[in-house]
Structures
1.
Amino acid sequence: MPRSSRGVLLPPVTGSRPRRTDVYLALRDAVLQGTLAPGENVPSSRKAAIDYGVSRGLMEEVYSQLVEEGLLERIVGRGTFIAKRATKPTDPDRHEETIQGVSSVSTRGHKLAGNVACRIMRQFKPFNAGVADTTAFPWQIWQRIQARAVRDLRRADMNFTDPRGVPALRRSLAHHLAQLRGVRCAPDQVVVFNSIQQASYLLALLLTNPGDAAWVEDPCYPGARAALELAGTTIVPVPVDQQGLQVEEGLRRAPHARLACVTPSHQFPSGFVMSAERRTALLEWAHRQDTWILEDDYDGEFGHARQPATPLHSLDRHARVLYLGTLSKSMFVSLRLAFAVVPEAMVEQLANIRTQLDAFGAPLIQLAMSRFMDEGHFSTHVRHMRNVYAEKAAVLAEGLMPLANHGWSWEKGTAGLQILLRHPDAQEVQRTAEASGLALHLLSSYRHESAGGDGLLLRFGGLSISAIRAGVEQLVFAAQTMRHSSRNKSSQ
Ligand SMILES: Cc1ncc(COP(=O)(O)O)c(C=O)c1O
């Protein structure tokens, strides 16, 4: 790519002696595709001519043509700029279209690219977002701590850092896990990741061979399934009921599975807590088979209103449970910090695999997080948020009351950041509610196999109390409208 002494870098052209058309097309495409953004300053024609190795006259001609076409603007005394209206408007689907439009992607690439587990929400509407309430986040404290972390970042931390995570954060996490979740581990067992998804993917690479079976809850968190699929495992859906994963069914479908991925403290999306019986059965199977359980404790701090459920990890006597936690819910999702607790003997291998994917996580944010925990701000925040989410859950449950006794049901007493509202005709209500601005996810969309009964996942964590009230009113109205119209139809 030609370097420029002033202004943006110009796009490369092929060949050592480019022609006028080559230079023109390279610049035009870069502007239209947004590689050169509106308002950016391009080098003078004299400097651009030197960069491209063409004559000044040729470069002038190209610039003049692009000015005529409205792609460049010349401002006397200031220079030449990419025109403000030059780029095509950005289409959020463009990336996806491009991938689908490329005929040379592999069959595997095509399949995986079609499997979108996580995507930026086009619009934040009730009740579509599984995010934390950031209005209650102590921003000023966090900003101060971040600033201090920047100041204290030692030279050593600006180089390659430990792929297992910054030691200070591994210590803070071990301490926090014992305090808030009753998970006892040494800092040397903690490995820091960007997300639970990343941790699951790398653990699956470490623990399975291509094609090995992995039990996945049905219904389940799509991110977990996607991570295991990416790692090449064969997904074995195992149904979930009120007691959690049906271990017996798992044994029937794939007794020799190498992994089981579960959310025992707060099943996603059904909200059930795994019963003691099922926990024992799952742990016994893992011990007998010498296989592994990935325990995804994604919202363990908030899972249940009164007393968060005990992690499976604390009941495990044979070191078969690999515990996964995230700060996406307890802090905020763009933080990109999560962690795994694994047997010490596995840490080195896991870290080695991690280095082959993205070397290591950014140390700065890890240092800041460690301070936030060590100074007590994290536990204060979590305690405060437990109350905030419990209040929101209560407002939501109260708003849903008109639906009780009309075929709708939901788990009472749960908090977390979401509630599953069950009803066989949920799909129709979803459609009606969509028209009034709600974005509701169907329980069936998280399922592998179509089983009886459907529902609506109401994610309320990031909504204000007033937005919850307004949203639930619209939802109740949609459900009642549907009831009246189906009654009318049956009486005709
Ligand atoms: C069950 C479950 N696990 C994990 C996550 C996300 O964790 P992370 O952002 O660390 O991948 C979510 C997010 O909604 C989730 O529902």
2.
Amino acid sequence: MFNFKHFFVVMMAGLIGLIGATATTQTQTAAATTIKFTSAMHTNKNLTYKGTIKYYVKSDAKKYQANIHYAANRWNKALGKKVLRPTNSLAGSRLVFTGTNKLGGDVAGMAEINSGVIALNTSWMNRYGTQKQRAVVIHELGHAFGTKDLYNYPDASLRSVFKKQTIMGGNYSTRIGSFDAKLAKWTLTKTRTMSPSEFSHYRSNEGLYYQQMLRGQL
Ligand SMILES: [Zn+2]
């Protein structure tokens, strides 16, 4: 599931060492090896095609466009590669942002990888300031790389750390730390890219977000 629950940041010592590990000193590198990436952290597909994800912002999400671009640029910087690129072609996109008030009330945003849609809940987004809007988009974009929600992580003590300190744990941060960046790079290697025919198959599926969005049901 790709819902974005609401958790707030209370910094804990554990992962701070981890996040700081590569950025600061070599003595902290040992801490970085204590949290291993596992299959519970990734799905089976990502939205890349030829190394990039072209994204389109639909008219109903235009008011969030500046924050969407900001979030995409943060990820590009964190990944050290221009993976996310804006496009003006809906048909040529692998990812579409839409704004809707038809999501569940407890969900700020949803990412559907098969048909390549990120739906932003307008009733939350319109109440949010710039920082939180950016944080929602950064989190949802994490799913585009194939990363799962870490607030559902099976191990309870790690889950609690993830919730507070990671993008995919739902920490509402606009800072993509080294753990977040490494995890995204890793899930990109663990997931597969859909071929154009597989992707268009999903986009033509009535039950998935893309068709629902086109029909105004989303
Ligand atoms: Zn999520």
